[in-house]
Every structure is written in structure tokens, then in C-alpha cells.
Amino acid sequence: MGWKLPVAAVQMRAIGDLAANLGVVRELVGKAAADGAQLVVLPECFSFLGRAEGDKFAAAETLDGRGPVLGALREAATKHGTWIIGGGTPETVPGDPKRTYNTLVVVDPRGELVARYRKIHLFDVDIPGGAVLRESDATAAGDEAVVVDIAGVKVGLSICYDLRFPELYRTLVKDKGAEVVVIPAAFTAHTGAAHWHVLMRARAIEDQVWIVAAAQWGKHNDKRESYGHSLVVDPWGTIVGELAEGDGVVAATLDGDIVAKRRAQMPVLRHAVLW
């Protein structure tokens, strides 16, 4: 028998208020745990989402365990006995007061920080008919693809705009052995309506993995609106859970036997001759 992993993708609408956002996180993690989730995935910007890139310094911390963001996740993980992935929060960059990393953190049920992933691809885009966003103005890029063992399952880590770069996911899966990939996001409403579902399903299909995509939703302020539609997608590209809008959780039990079945039926990873 293969592995099984009950998961929950949290959907929320973060604002420029750290304390308020962490209150929502505590509530929704509690709900997910009550529903049986062994792994809870929070969206990108779960701790803070302001009007301008520089506003996030209000939530930046070193992630050494003494700050309020990591402290809240550690407390919730130990309280509920769950793994928690904080899908993207500002981490201070040593020696660089003008930028932070956009960092995903993995906290185990003992409250220990066991892995972190610093977002590699930064969102510098003029959205057609929408806002101009320059993540790199106040964010430093990471440079390492990360896979972490969660309850015996290899889970690949990524954030939002990474979704558009399939080579990252092929690295996580073919080179590092991931069978699940998390893609926490704050996808804009405009680009989400055009590309969110098709890209999520494509990453699942081409790499034959489970996808857990926790999303921001709704209007955060007068400049930012997120698409929502938190998803869980299976290795055949089937959407097995979705929340279009509103705060809440998408729950599903991921099954390793399905990964093995799809990879046996169509062994594309073995046939990938240009990798």
C-alpha cells in the first residue's frame, strides 16, 4: 500500500494588518485540523498584503523563531499536531535593508522549522488592463529548489509566479523525487481568470504529481485583488477540490497509489530524453 496524506489548502484575504491576518490563520488552521488535515497549506502573503511592495517590511522577520509570524505557525502546529506550510512571508535579507525574501516555511507538528524555500521567480509584470507590479523592487530572489519529507511523503515547494516555469517542477519531480507539489499563491484576478486552472492542471499532468494550491482571494485594498479558486489537483489533472471565493479550506486525502498508477500507465518521466 502507498502513502496517504490528508491535506487542507487554506484560502484567505490578507490585508495590511499583521495581527488581523494571523488571527485568520489561527482560525482556519484550527478548522482544517478539526477536519482531519495532517498538512495545512497557507497561501502566499498570508502574514501581510499591503498596497505597495515596501509595506511588507512591517511583517518582515529573520525566521529564527522569535518573531510573531513564525511564532504563530509554531504555536498552531503544536496545538493541533499538524504540519503547516506558510506559503510566503517576508524574511529579512542580511545586509540588505531594502529587500526581503519571499519565503515559504515548513513547520512540523513539534513546532520546528524544518525547511524554507525562497521564491526564485519574481513577479515583475505590467498586467494588461491592470496594475504594474514589481516584486523585485523590494524582494531578493532565492536560488534553490527544495523538496521536503512530510510524514514520509516527498513534497516540492514553490510559490505563485513559479507556476509559469515548468522547468522548476521537472527539477522538483525528476531530480528530487517529489510526488506532491505545493503552489501557494496570491494570483491577480486578471491573470488568474485567464491562466490559473490551465497552468495548475498542466503542472499536475506533465509531472504526474498532486498539486495543493492555497490562494488569496478578493480585494485586499484599492490596488490589489486576488483570484481565489484554491485547488487540489490529482496526477491526472482532475480537480478534486476547489473553493472559488471566501475564507475557508479545501480538504482532500492525497494518495500515493494514484501517483504510482499514473506514472506506470504513462511513463513520461522515464521518457523525458531532453532532461
| Largest sheet, strands/sense/barrel | 7 strands, mixed
Number of helices: 5
Q: Structural class of the secondary elements?
A: alpha/beta
How many strands? 17
Radius of gyration: 17 Å
What's a quick, concise take on this entry?
The protein is α/β, with parallel strands linked by helices and 275 residues long.
Output the keywords.
275 residues, alpha/beta, seven-stranded mixed beta sheet, six-stranded mixed beta sheet, globular
Kindly describe this structure.
By secondary structure, the protein is of the alpha/beta class. 25% of the residues lie in helices and 32% in strands. The chain has helices spanning 18-34, 68-80, 166-175, 189-207, 256-265; strands at 4-11, 39-41, 83-93, 96-107, 113-118, 124-126, 132-134, 139-140, 147-150, 153-157, 180-182, 210-213, 217-219, 225-227, 230-233, 239-243, 248-255. The strands form 4 sheets. Strands 1, 2, 3, 4, 5, 8 and 17 form a 7-stranded mixed beta sheet that branches. The protein has a 6-stranded mixed beta sheet with strand order 9-10-11-12-15-16, covered by helices on one side. It has a two-stranded antiparallel ribbon with strand order 6-7. α3 links the parallel β10 and β11 (180-182). α1 (18-34) runs parallel beside α2 (68-80). The mean pLDDT is 96.
